Amino acid sequence: SYFRYMGSLTTPPCTENVVWNILGKGRELSQEQLQLITAPLPHQDNRPPQPLNGRSVAFYNPPNSTISIQSLVQ
């Protein structure tokens, strides 16, 4: 399951017309995994959450989702 909404980039120039897909269930990572993901990123210059301004957030929960991520990437 996942959430989807239209938004913008979180860093300047904050370009709009970005489709955000957010997993419906969180995933666990170790401290080491988190460091590997965040180490190459520049300093935190993201902006705080913004008001919806009339946009909607959709929740998708497909009943038979069996497609693998690998098949989507190829």
TrEMBL record:
Protein name in the entry: Alpha-carbonic anhydrase domain-containing protein
Annotated Pfam families: Carb_anhydrase (PF00194)
GO biological process, one term: one-carbon metabolic process
InterPro entries referenced in this protein's UniProt entry, alphabetically: CA_dom, CA_dom_sf, Carbonic_anhydrase_a-class
Sequence ranges assigned to domain Alpha-carbonic anhydrase in this UniProt record: 1-61
Molecular-function annotations in GO: carbonate dehydratase activity; zinc ion binding
Coiled coil: none
